[in-house]
Design goal:
Quinone Oxidoreductase, Chain A, domain 1, Rossmann fold, 2 domains, globular, alpha/beta, 7-stranded mixed β-sheet, 330 residues, single chain, 6-stranded parallel β-sheet
């Protein structure tokens, strides 16, 4: 029986949750046919919610948080996956209902795993993480609706965050004119270096607006929801497409049907958690060709996993720029 260390969330009825770095064993892991030695994880908005208890993300106790991980297969009875292979996991309820990646080992069903693309190191795959993989799913959603670079600019909200920064870099490499919306106007130069053609203040989108506004962008990627998404839709050109993937501002959509029935705008919902394996592999293969690794490295901050609890409230407050990679201690 292997003993290893992990962050473990526990909760007694009527009491606040507790987080501790503690030793557990393989017997504590959940069902799955592949066991992985985890080398890297990352920090997403959902991880911040789980670690702080700000939202009921965790639905099984005790829980190892961490919705992403990369590592090497230690044991496998899954056909096509053998010991020593490098793999990546995003979503599938890991860190919510299934023990997650903030640990030295993990066990999951093999069909949840994506082979690590040769273009990336394990650390780089976690610099991408769920945020970057979701950004690529959004790009695929725009392309699936026929949005082309010549159609006009693409707006990216939350551009300084994980989804937004990867989306800006990918869209720019694909030849799109990118408008980046952010509340961090001191990041204008940084976003321009990623590929943004224009940077706008998120304040112009985050408050209640009109049902229809000036037609400004041919498409958009939104990770905020609420008034921001409503205003994004109101500013979308005739026949445009908005890919919605997040709720950092809120779960509500206080808008109007006007963009849909008067301008033929399409709202494309993007889910990264339960996306089928074929879609995941497609997204990761596209990231391998359409994401500039130099730009990825430029938006990445590498930290020890022990920093995760301190960074959790920072990402919820919008104070984390780009992507954070956690190195898991051995």
């Amino acid at each position: 029986m292997t003993t290893f260390d992990a962050f473990l969330l526990t909760k007694e009825e009527g009491q606040p949750q507790q987080l501790a770095w503690t030793s557990i064993t393989d017997d504590d892991l959940m069902d799955g046919d592949v066991t992985i030695d985890v080398s890297h994880s990352t920090l997403n908005f959902k991880d911040g919610l789980a670690l702080t208890g700000s939202s009921p993300v965790v639905r099984r106790w005790p829980m190892v948080p961490g919705i992403d991980f990369a590592g090497t297969v230690a044991e496998s009875s899954h056909e096509g996956i053998g010991p020593g292979e490098a793999v990546v996991l995003n979503g599938w309820g890991v860190g919510e209902t299934h023990l997650g990646g903030y640990a030295q080992r993990a066990r999951v069903p093999g069909e949840w795993l994506v082979p690590l693309p040769s273009a990336f190191t394990p650390a780089q795959s976690m610099a991408i993480g769920t945020a970057g993989y979701t950004a690529m799913l959004c790009v695929l959603a725009l392309e699936g609706q026929g949005v082309l670079p010549d159609d006009g600019p693409i707006l990216v909200t939350g551009a300084s965050g994980g989804v937004g920064s990867v989306a800006v870099a990918v869209l720019a490499k694909l030849g799109h004119e990118v408008i980046a919306s952010t509340g961090k106007l001191d990041e204008v130069d940084w976003l321009t270096q990623l590929g943004a053609s224009e940077v706008i203040d998120r304040a112009g989108l985050s408050e209640p607006g009109r049902p229809l506004g000036k037609e400004r962008w041919a498409g958009a990627i939104d990770s905020l929801g609420s008034h921001t998404l409503a205003n994004v839709l109101a500013g979308t050109r005739y026949g445009g497409v908005v890919a919605a993937c997040g709720l950092a501002q809120g779960m509500d959509l206080p808008g109007s049907v006007a963009p849909f029935i008067l301008r033929g705008v399409t709202l494309a919902g993007v889910d990264s958690v339960m996306a089928p394996l074929a879609t995941r592999i497609d997204a990761w293969n596209r990231l391998a060709t359409d994401l500039d690794v130099a730009k990825l490295d430029a938006i990445t901050d590498t930290r020890p996993l022990s920093d995760a609890p301190a960074l959790a409230p920072e990402i919820l407050a919008g104070k984390v720029r780009g992507r954070v990679v956690f190195e898991v201690p051995r």
